[in-house]
Design brief:
Largest interface: A-B, 42 and 49 residues
Helix content of chain A: 25-40%
Number of strands of chain A: 6
Strand content of chain B: under 5%
Number of helices of chain A: 4
Oligomer: heterodimer
Order of helices and strands of chain A: HHEEEHEEHE
Order of helices and strands of chain B: HHHHHHHEEEHHHHH
Strand content of chain A: 15-25%
Number of helices of chain B: 12
Largest sheet of chain B: 3 strands, antiparallel
Shape of chain A: elongated
Shape of chain B: elongated
Distance between the termini of chain B: 38 Å
Chain lengths: 153, 284
């Protein structure tokens, strides 16, 4: 009987380890964000110790700022660094972009995509992270980029 | 073939405990940290009361008299729960904790400590469910109510403020905040419940129905504290910077911790029933 419970404990540890490994998703979403910004033709730079990406385009002096945040707001402190009065924000999540943060819509869309993933209709596990990108209002041309391409999933 | 009741209980707690902490590690941000670093980070980040809750459950279970064998029903039930928590879903741990709590409750007429363990497990199961993605829409709805309360409190303080969904615009300061699910007054309530049960047990008292008004008081105080914090955050950009920065978060955490400890202390001022004694109902 003791051997049975030892085996069950080992099995539980193994199942949890496999599950943690499988559910990792995008291990480095910031690096993915940098790659996607560069694919849009911007030159990127990340300050040491910061997780806000500065992306520059030749036609604009001011940088575009971007980062990846939880849709639940656990790291919303970053928002105050990204959002300043001279910037226009875009919240990019699950392939769509919106000008205002709308947690109700974000959580509802995430829940729906999670259901689709659980029943096998969606192949990849949806990420609960969104990309936030802020554009300097002085450079109107930047709005022409397809920022929805920065969507974490 | 047979094993003692104490050993079986410890196996059950170990199985559900592994699943509980595994689900917490899984729901964390992966990053580049090693699995060990993630486990340590998750345990620290999840709060001291969850760690204390598991330690309390194990300590109480270890004090089970070992002179009796576990029944076949208990062995089968623990095995079924051990297999159930293998499911790769966060709620599997909640189901396991609730199932194990049922086993302890079934035996609680003999030992008050069993009732204590059962209540710890039920509180942890409720917390897991409360914080799951399934209930996030509820917290989003609560954020809208928080925004209304926050705007009303700013109005009382002489500012002109409006709430739009989960956004509070403080027109007087030309500043606004977004209330995310993570910041709502409802999110912390399950953790307050865990803290309440654990603190009562650490004070040597099994929770009882007479403690419910104190638990309600702890919930109300937690909600009030969060509303005050949100109002302070929405006051101005400078206030937001301070209250959202390291000093402000520390001040809020200390206040929340103080309240989490205060109400169980008030509830246990008098009339402690020792955990080793038989349950009151059996002796009446």
């Amino acid at each position: 009987m003791r051997a049975w419970f030892v085996a069950l404990v080992l099995l539980t540890v193994a199942a949890q380890a496999v599950s943690i490994h499988r559910d990792q998703g995008d291990v480095d979403p910031l690096r993915t964000l940098v790659a996607r910004l560069e694919a849009l033709g911007l030159q990127t730079q990340i300050s040491r110790g910061s997780d806000i990406v500065q992306a520059r385009e030749s036609r604009c002096d001011e940088p575009v700022l971007a980062s990846v945040l939880s849709i639940y707001g656990s790291d919303d402190g970053k928002l105050s660094d990204l959002l300043t009065p001279d910037r226009r924000a875009s919240f990019v999540f699950l392939g769509g972009a919106g000008a205002r943060p709308a947690p109700a819509a974000l959580v509802a869309r995430y829940a729906w995509q999670t259901i689709l993933f659980t029943i096998g209709i969606r192949r990849d596990k949806p990420s609960s992270r969104m990309a936030v990108v802020t554009l300097p209002t002085a450079c109107n041309d930047l709005a022409n980029h397809d920022w929805s391409a920065l969507s974490p999933s | 073939m047979w094993i003692g009741r104490r050993e079986l209980r410890l196996w059950g707690l170990l199985l559900v405990g592994i699943a509980f902490w595994g689900s917490i590690v899984r729901s964390g941000t992966p990053g580049e940290a090693t699995i060990v670093a993630r486990v340590v980070e998750s345990i620290i980040g999840n709060g001291a009361f969850d760690v204390l809750a598991w330690l309390t459950a194990f300590a109480l279970a270890a004090r089970t008299p070992d002179e009796t064998h576990a029944t076949l029903r208990e062995i089968i039930w623990t095995s079924v729960l051990g297999l159930a928590v293998l499911a790769p879903a966060r709620l599997a741990a909640a189901v396991g904790a609730a199932g194990l709590a049922a086993m302890f409750l079934a035996d609680s007429r003999r030992r008050a400590a069993d009732r204590g363990i059962a209540l710890v497990l039920l509180a942890l199961a409720c917390e897991t469910f409360w914080l799951s993605a399934l209930l996030q829409p509820l917290h989003v709805a609560a954020a809208s109510v928080d925004a209304q309360i926050c705007a009303a409190m700013l109005d009382l303080l002489g500012a002109t403020a409006q709430a739009h969904g989960n956004i509070v615009d403080n027109d007087s300061a030309g500043f606004g905040i977004v209330i995310w699910p993570y910041c709502t007054a409802t999110l912390q309530l399950a953790s307050v419940g865990v803290a309440f049960v654990v603190m009562l047990l650490c004070r040597g008292r099994t929770p009882r129905s007479a403690d419910l008004p104190w638990l309600a008081g702890a919930f109300a105080a937690s909600i009030a504290l969060t509303e005050v914090r949100l109002t302070l955050l929405a006051g101005s950009a400078d206030r937001y910077e301070w209250w959202h920065g390291a000093s402000g978060v520390s001040a809020y955490s200390m206040a929340a911790l103080g309240l989490a400890i205060l109400f169980p202390l008030l509830a246990t001022r008098e009339g402690r029933a020792r955990l080793d004694e038989p349950h009151a109902r059996t002796t009446a």
